[in-house]
Amino acid sequence: MEIEALQSLFLKHKERSLFGRYIHSNHIEPLLTKLPKEFKVTVIGVSVNDHNIYSITIGTGHKKILMWSQMHGNEATTTKALFDLINTLKGNSEMSETILKHFTLTIIPILNPDGAKAYTRLNANSIDLNRDAQNLSQPESRALRACFDAFKPHYCFNLHGQRTIFSAGHDNKVATLSFLSPAQDEQRSVTQTRAVAMSVINRMTETLYKEIPGQVGIYDDSFNIDCVGDTFQALNVPTVLFEAGHYKEDYDREEVRRLVFQSYLVALSAIRLNTLSEKDVEMYLKTPQNEKLFFDIIIKNAIIGGVIRSVAIQYDEQLLSDSIVFIPKIVKIDKGLSNYGHREINANGKPLISINTGELQVGMTVNSVLLNNEVLSLKLGNN
């Protein structure tokens, strides 16, 4: 698919009521009530705190795809992109008609409504739903599994978000999007099911490289049957893990949202056209692995306690007054850092101290510091 056409679709169908990092059920329920009758909205379960878990089913095609987002409540980028996709399917375009003719989609926009409301990874029982695929101890896990069993999908899209720390490989390339075809066994065998998921991932990667070359990574494929993706893959349903990552100065994840939306369309097209290649496994295995090489800010070559050191700062995301704030905190002070920073500052051998206490320490919140007696703001948006 042509990049310009994908970009145009996004601009036309972006759900503008959804923005930023904090998305929960109160944001999506008004959208669900406005869907045309062709979109079947169902309550498939309730959360620990009795919030509804919704699914949306649309299309009449033979190929069935199950998509779920916000299994981890604080990972909303893929949810925003789902509603952009839904808006696209509402339109009377050739693309929407083609998708709805060939596919039946069941979309769970927020699997973990309690975690989404609290802006936490875990559910209200402090359980990681992505480690509950076998025990099914939580109502949200049981709702997903019951939906899977009843729907009997041919493909699964497991939609997540990842931290800003990840690089695509060992170079100074942030992992803006990462994918995974989960393992089916301890040996991480490349089964036919995995190979199909790898092929879908390759089509998305090829398109993404036209805009963000080198910024697509492959997530760790260590086998864990307690993970949902591994469980569904082990049941021979090709499953693709999406990890929405970081893009330059895009802490609201709006540019990444666009890239995720475009990737949905590319994946559907690849499945519909069956554009699989014998070389896809080889291509997939050559895609750079995710590495943890980034910090949000690095201040290099600063004099701290009489010694030249570097300071690594990471934003701590906190929910305050119904919005997410990014609190800069020192996570590492070292004589030499080989990591990369999304924002890098060269102190050029000048003294660096805390405004309040003088001495910089790991764990300290540092909205501003004094670099050579001049105030340096570290708040987001002060690059």
Automatic annotation (TrEMBL):
<keyword id="KW-0645">Protease</keyword>
<dbReference type="GO" id="GO:0005615">
    <property type="term" value="C:extracellular space"/>
</dbReference>
<keyword id="KW-0378">Hydrolase</keyword>
<keyword id="KW-0862">Zinc</keyword>
<comment type="similarity">
    <text>Belongs to the peptidase M14 family.</text>
</comment>
<protein>
    <submittedName>
        <fullName>Peptidase M14</fullName>
    </submittedName>
</protein>
<keyword id="KW-0482">Metalloprotease</keyword>
<dbReference type="InterPro" id="IPR000834">
    <property type="entry name" value="Peptidase_M14"/>
</dbReference>
<dbReference type="GO" id="GO:0006508">
    <property type="term" value="P:proteolysis"/>
</dbReference>
<feature type="domain" description="Peptidase M14">
    <location>
        <begin position="14"/>
        <end position="268"/>
    </location>
</feature>
<feature type="active site" description="Proton donor/acceptor">
    <location>
        <position position="243"/>
    </location>
</feature>
<dbReference type="GO" id="GO:0004181">
    <property type="term" value="F:metallocarboxypeptidase activity"/>
</dbReference>
<dbReference type="Pfam" id="PF00246">
    <property type="entry name" value="Peptidase_M14"/>
</dbReference>
<dbReference type="GO" id="GO:0008270">
    <property type="term" value="F:zinc ion binding"/>
</dbReference>
